Amino acid sequence: MLFIVMFRFFKQQFLPAFAVALLFVVHPIHTEVVANAKSLDEILGMLGILISIWGFQRFYEKRQIFWFPVALMGFLFALFSKESAVVGIALAPMILYFGSSDFKLKQSIVIVASMTLLFGIFYMARENAIGWYLKTYQNDPNILDNIISMTKKDPSKAGGSYDLNLLLPTVVYLMGYYVFKLFFPFVLSSDYSYSVVQVKTWTDWEFILSLILLSGLIVMLVRQIKSKHPLSAGIWWFLIAYSIVSNLFITIGVSFAERLMFLPSAGWCLAIVGIALYFSKNPPQESKQSGWMNMFKSQPILLGMTLIFALPFMMKSIQRNKDWINLETLVKKDLSEFPNSTHLNFYWGNYLSGSEYAEGKSPQQIIPALQEALGAFRKSLAIHPDLPAEGFNSLGKTFSEIKRLASGTPNAYTDSALFYYKKAYEKNPKNAAFVNNIGTIYSELGRLQSNRSFLDSAYRYFYIAYQSDTTSPVFKGNIGVVFRSMGDRPNALNWLYRSYYSDTLAISASWTCKMIEGTYREMNNLQEADRWAFKAQQTEQLRQSRR
Q: Which domains does the chain have, with CATH numbers?
């Protein structure tokens, strides 16, 4: 689609359109979008915008009304793929203006008005679907996700104003960093959290270089605005597409991410081809009759400049795709390039302490990995004394697992687990799993020490988790276990039954059956105990067969 749009933009010339599409295809900064399942929204959003531009091109070429709704449907497709596709409202008329000698202002107004109407329809649908969620739960981005939050006058408060002496230099610096990555994408990362990128001031050299770059782009645009040169079109494409993710007009979830360059990078590719054409003094028109080789030879500067970028980019893309083969390989590689990234250290600790890593391994293999995970979490906290709620929860889980698996582990590990579980709960009190983990620690302490106050605390936290999600068999089962530890077997059986019958194929189902069996044995009801022991075996076999 990019080639088709560019082919019409360059008035049926193959080589420039092919060069733009080739540079876009092989650019290494796109590996995150292609390899990461989450980024399908980027691909579909750009596809919809390109369909929209193509439809408008066909409409104004052929004057056939059929192509106008095709263009509008493409834009609507883009919006429902990713809302940042709203920049298509400016991209479409811009490309038509630069690619046509007779495109009029009146035509731009028709396009912008039609696309704006569609955006209004999308926005109403969005508000109807998730508006309540955005108003209730959406907060400022975490400082570690988006350093722009550090430029607020009071970062501890939600909302509030920004310090322009920090915001503007930081935004300009980030734009310059993106342009640098587009030209030199040879050190890439799946994460650019603190301290890979940092807040800048007016005197930082990174800001000054970025400002010089931005000023140069603006001067070039002013000088070339009437010539309708492809170089100007490429710069406009980049700036328009970049504006929505720049954090200048709206604050988004991250300060810097390679996936955010998917759409803007098409403008960079167009600008590179524009530079080559700028230095090709009056390049001859292509002629299909002259043959492919002669056509390539007719524009040596364009061909040479394209190959200078395309060949190393292609090799880097192939290499980078190997990094994305799995989480372990990706985080290891990126951590070697950016060892002071808060998130990458956290991700590494999260991976080593997770169930995926532990599957099929013995405790002797898992314990060293958990100790390494602790080191990664501590390094993350040393870089910035904060973690997202999930990070504190993972850190608490790591302490808890080491205590469970390694005999002779100090009781301080249990205290640390409880401390970090509570930190996670404080940061996100709406997460039922976090509060459930606190209850698990208290339940274990109460069972081992026969301490009723610990059991009361366990019940309180488990019940909060249950109120957050009354469908979870785990939360019901945990309440049942607490009642069993208290000696209240009727209530224990009541909650354990509710847990089992809420989902008889849940991962916890066979465990629940064993808890019911144990409770009946304590009541000397051996017949029921044996029945539930058999049911536990059946449940596990059935669950395994369903897997």
A: 141-299+308-325 (no CATH), 327-546 (1.25.40.10)
